Amino acid sequence: MKYQQEFRDAGLAHSIVQEIRRTVTRSWVLMEICGGQTHAIMRYGLDQLLPEEIELVHGPGCPVCVTSLELVDKALEIASQPGVIFTSYGDMLRVPGSGRDLFSVRAAGGDIRVVYSPLDAIQIARENPDKQIVFFAIGFETTAPANAMSVLQAKSLGLSNYSVLVSHVRVPPAMQAILSSPYNRVQGFLAAGHVCAVMGYWEYPPLSEQFKAPIVVTGFEPVDILQGILVTVRQLEQGKFEVDNAYPRIVSYEGNLPAQAVINRVFTTCDRKWRGIGLIPASGWCLRSEFSHFDAESRFAVSQIQPEESPICIAGQILQGMKKPGQCPAFGSLCTPESPLGATMVSSEGACAAYYRYSSQAAGLMTQE
Amino acid sequence: MAEDTPIIQGAVCPTPLPHRNQVVLGHGSGGRLSQRLIEQIFLPAFRNTALLAGDDSAVIQIPHDGCNRLAFSTDSHVVWPLFFPGGDIGRLAVCGTVNDLSMVGASPLYLTAGFILEEGLLISDLERIVHSMQVAAEEAGILIIAGDTKVVQRGKADGVYINTAGVGVIDEAINISGRFASPGDVVILSGSIGDHGIAVLQARGDLGFEAQIESDVAPLNHLTRQMLEVCPQIHVLRDPTRGGLATTLNEIARQSQVGILIDESAVLVKPAVASACEMLGFDPFYVANEGKLIAILPESTADEVIELMRRTPLGKEAVAIGRIVPLHPGKVLLKTSLGSTRILDSLSGEMLPRIC
User: Average pLDDT, stretch A161-170?
Assistant: First the structure.
């Protein structure tokens, strides 16, 4: 696998770790935004390789985790209706709503299908003209172009049986919310590389300036992540707070302009509730009014939802980097991947699931020589 | 009145169609159609004395010189699609039970086969499956000595389900169990992981791209017999099927209450399997295998066993992937390619593709 093995090279990784050790003189708290990065950090045990001065806290960038309970409940409600084929990315099926998940709706007879792309859902809509096909359009800026494209395709095909349940979220407002919090500990960010592949990083300079925090665009392989950390730590040590790109083989400053155009054509910014965090102004995308007839929320009557969240779960504090999974009283006992209390335990990108699966320290074990 | 009486010119009942092309409910009736299915499909393929006796049970001799224990196992197969690169449900059904018997050190002897057929299944497909079972049985050197067929309405099954049950005998000198892994033992893996699971996904069209990956489905009994001839004191044998290598290692760690430390870089994953897993967000450690085994044995015997395995067709990529440690009983630890150590957990629930 070219362009991948090179970025998992142990020798290169260790030389960057050495460089980080030479650079660091005091404690720093860094946040990796994206769940994919959290996953890679735990999977490769990168936290064990870093000097103890560097603390990584895990950001809100897991789309499955932050999809609001209210929307999950709406999805469950719509998926239960007869005549509906509910399509979703696989990760969402296990996300607990108020008391059940999409798996249990499927077991009870709901027609729920895992798709890899919303364009597969379009195909299902064409093949089943007598059914209503709903796609659960979740995700950050990464999944938005394809989801927007499906709406444009449905429109050009004249599909009246396709709609989307939109739960799109945007990274920059979440970073703003984290930095504005009086409890914020984050001093530098590893920005989400694939979000930036779509959006570029022109949105970040005002943030880094306002909050005096370096923001470094970072990839997902071990060498990429370590390089992102090195660039961030160098800035912190030098008292700088700039936007930098440590993932230049994928990301450009302006990003993918055709993809941004598709997003802007279909979506407009709106306020969005984040699971465990609450409402963040202008942090979401909704369908523009000219596409409102593709909105599953208005097509199906599901407005009377009263979601109930587990009172024990601290997913919100974990998603904001205020606490780590091991600090939750339910972690690994009441809350496991088999019976998750909160969404951070569900997705493989969720911080709790990553800790549960990979972290020997979190499981109360000593590192084996 | 007389002129109202119809003139019967001969038999008017239409002759029933022979249904030679596809399975109909009548094939499961126990009547003539069932008989024809048995005589035309199953008997010619599985032909052996015990089966041909045609009684309600097969009567068999159990060879007992030096073997005073019987291993007995069963396995049901519901794989879809029925045919996939490298195998089909028939080959899988024979190998599944042969391998389960082999993993306690038994020499498999006899299998039974129970078929649940869906109305509408093509007879030609059934023939292909049955032929493939016989080929696998010959490879393994076992006999299929009894069987049963039921037919269910269309839509109530996925073409065909096959249950196999089998017996084998265990030599007195052999004592193998997932409970016997002990600190200091070496963990050997017979080849690359993830081939079967990815081959089946590919056949389902779930990959969305073409990959040249074949299932590894194969009977492992000759390999285990040769290994046991060289090293009768093997502690554990296990084939990492559903849930993959990670789940199987966790089962052993729990059963033996030991820690298992695995070296990630020693575990072989074919490039095509690795690429498919990367694209789909799967981890090959959790993808099914049907022709691989894990052996756990004393360190002093490991080199000899690996050398022997490498001379066999199903073990030519055998390699030591880790060892049993006294720490962390019940846990599997993975030494990553970067030198850090992390937990390697069991698969929880269904394997789900990640979003991005």
Answer: 97
- Residue A191 structure tokens: 């920005």
Mutation target among B340, B347, B350 for the A interface, most CBs of A within 10 A: B340
- The string of pLDDT tens digits covering residues B153-181 is 999 999 999 999 999 999 999 999 999 99
- Looking at the fold, whether A239 and A98 belong to one and the same domain comes out as yes
pLDDT band at A203 (very low <50, low <70, confident <90, very high): very high
Residues B254-279 have pLDDT tens digits of: 999 999 999 999 999 999 999 999 88
Please tell me whether residues A144 and A279 are part of one structural domain: yes
A63 and B355 in contact by Cβ < 8 A? yes
pLDDT exceeding 90 applies to what percent of chain A?
Answer: 69
Mean pLDDT score of chain A, rounded to an integer?
91
Mean pLDDT throughout B317-324?
Answer: 98
Do A201 and A319 fall into the same domain? no
Q: Which of B270, B335, B352 to mutate to test the interface with A (most CBs of A within 10 A)?
A: B352
> Of the candidates B333, B314, B312, B313, which has an alpha carbon nearest to the alpha carbon of residue B324?
B333
| Contact between chains at B337 and A91 (C-beta distance less than 8 A) | no
Across the interface, of B261, B341, B348, the residue whose CB is closest to A337 is B348
Q: Which residues of A touch B208 (CB under 8 A)?
A: 116
Q: What is the pLDDT of residue A366?
A: 37
Is A369 domain-assigned?
no
Mean pLDDT on B123-150: 97
User: Higher confidence at residue B313 or residue B7?
Assistant: B313
Residue A338: list chain B partners with CB under 8 A: 348-349
Q: Give the whole-angstrom CA distance, residue A82 versus residue A80.
A: 7
Residues A224 and A330 in one domain: no
Asked if B237 and B102 touch (Cβ cutoff 8 Å), the reply is yes
| Domain carrying residue A354 | 315-364
Residue A214 lies in a domain: yes
Write the CA distances from B130 to B41, B146, B199, integer angstroms: 7, 13, 21
pLDDT attached to residue B12: 60
CATH code of the domain in which A215 resides = 3.40.50.11740
More confident residue, B298 or B25: B298
Could you tell me if A237 and A328 lie in one domain?
A: no
Backbone angles phi, psi at B251, to 5 degrees: -60, -45
CA-based nearest distance B349→chain A, Å: 7
Residues of B in contact with A44 (CB under 8 A): 336-338, 340, 342
The answer as to whether A189 is a domain residue is yes
List chain A residues with CB under 8 Å of B206: 116
> Do the domain assignments include residue A187?
yes
What domains can you pick out in chain B, each with its CATH number? 25-171 (3.30.1330.10), 186-343 (3.90.650.10)
Task: Measure the CA–CA gap between A12 and A18, rounded to whole angstroms.
Answer: 10
CB contact under 8 A, B338 and A63: no
Compare CB distances from A368 to B281, B327, B356 and report the shortest one's residue: B327
3 state DSSP class of A57: strand
Residue B270 at interface with chain A, using a CB cutoff of 8 Å: no
Our count of domains for chain A comes to 2
Question: Is the bond into B81 cis (omega within 30 degrees of 0)?
Answer: yes
| Cβ–Cβ below 8 Å for A348 and B281 | yes
What SS3 state is found at A29?
strand
Give the DSSP letter string of B37-82.
HIIIIIHHHH--HHHHT-SSS-------TTEEEEEEEEEEE--SSS
Question: In B, which residues are within 8 Å of A93 by CB distance?
Answer: 350, 352
pLDDT in tens, B15-41: 666 677 899 998 988 888 899 899 999
> Are residue A140 and residue A75 in the same domain, yes or no?
yes
